[in-house]
């Protein structure tokens, strides 16, 4: 479960970066 949360954070970080740009 911890790995899933880490992956979710990475996905959110990438999505936020794309949305900002």
Automatic annotation (TrEMBL):
It comes from the Eukaryota. This is Uncharacterized protein. It comes from Corchorus capsularis (Jute).
